[in-house]
Amino acid sequence: MNGTYLQAVLYTSTLGYYPCGDVASNTLIAGTEMYGKTRDCPIESASWQTRYIDRAMLQLKRKFEHLAEEWKRETINLSSVQEIVLNPAYQRIIGMGPDVIPFILPQLERCPGFWFWALRCLTGENPVTQEMRGDVAAMTEAWLNWGREHGYL
Amino acid sequence: MIAGLFRDFPQLSRSTKPASPATTTYNCIAWALGISDRWWWPQNPDAYWPLAYPEEVTIPAFQSVFAVCGFEPCEDGRLKNGYEKIALYAKGVQPTHAARQLRSGRWTSKCGRNVDIEHKLRELEGEKYGQVVMYFCRPRPSP
């Protein structure tokens, strides 16, 4: 287990803890906090784990979308790729870990942008070749192909 | 999109109109050099920068790339018949943006992922791009 948020959720669920408060906003620590808060909640349905995961995923997605909008707003007029990727909202997205990869790739598909840095950080891979540098359409296509090959799209 | 321009560049005239759709295909440096199919920026694997030129976000690094495209430093941004000019903006010693002079004497800029606009140089100075720090010129290519 490498400690992503959803893995923490899954782990606590196998111990029989049911979510009854808000899912807190950050990765493993937040999952641990929730674990402590919810130990007395009853388990009433066999599908609660699914609901639990769906709900955690939804909250993660909302947080991602909020940060992505903030990032786009704050960097839309910038040319410096360093400034674009060092934006605090972008860095917080990277900090959310690999669980956000399924949210990033559709964003990239809808509206190409500088998600490449985050994807490299989150996946440890780089399908972009030297010849593609600066060709946003080609880099986007390379990452979308990577996403298809890995079952994200 | 245009609202984001007025927010980031409060000196920009409210009559400014987009001259292109917003796109990530090219950026200000490419646009200043007359190129519209790549995002040019040094020191980042996601952006194009000519091989063998310094991969540094410094004024000399930009100067050397402008030079290979025929632009040499010049004194000011005044319209000079038969020449086209580039104005380089920087925050301190770090380049942030470039604008190209049009035949009318006004300037054209591609603002990040946003639209192209026509403007006066001072209208884009401020917190986002800093100040114009250097001018470059080359003979205007034949139409």
Task: Summarize the helices and strands and which ones pair or pack.
The complex is a heterodimer of chains A (153) and B (143).
Chain A: H1 5-14, H2 28-37, H3 48-75, H4 81-85, H5 88-95, H6 101-110, H7 116-123, H8 136-149
Chain B: H1 2-8, H2 28-32, H3 59-68, E1 72-74, E2 83-91, E3 94-101, E4 107-110, E5 116-119, E6 131-139
Antiparallel strand pairs in B: 1-6, 2-3, 2-6, 3-4, 4-5
**Helix-strand makeup class of chain A:** mainly alpha
Number of domains of chain B: 1
Strand content of chain B: 25-35%
Radius of gyration from the alpha-carbon trace of chain A, in angstroms: 18 Å
What's the helical proportion of residues of chain B? Answer: 10-25%
The number of helical runs of chain A is 8
Main sheet overview of chain B: 6 strands, antiparallel
- Helix amount of chain A: 55-70%
Order of helices and strands of chain B: HHHEEEEEE
Head-to-tail CA distance between termini of chain A: 24 Å
Radius of gyration of chain B: 14 Å
Total DSSP E strands of chain A: 0
How would you describe what is shown here?
The complex is a heterodimer of chains A (153) and B (143). Chain A has helices at 5-14, 28-37, 48-75, 81-85, 88-95, 101-110, 116-123, 136-149. Chain A has 153 residues and is mostly helical. The radius of gyration of chain A is 18 Å and the shape is globular. The model of chain A is unreliable at 18-43 (pLDDT under 50). By secondary structure, chain B is α+β, with helices and mostly antiparallel strands. Chain B has one domain. Chain B has helices at residues 2-8, 28-32, 59-68; strands at residues 72-74, 83-91, 94-101, 107-110, 116-119, 131-139. A six-stranded antiparallel sheet of chain B has the order 1-6-2-3-4-5. The interface between A and B is medium-sized, with 25 and 35 residues.
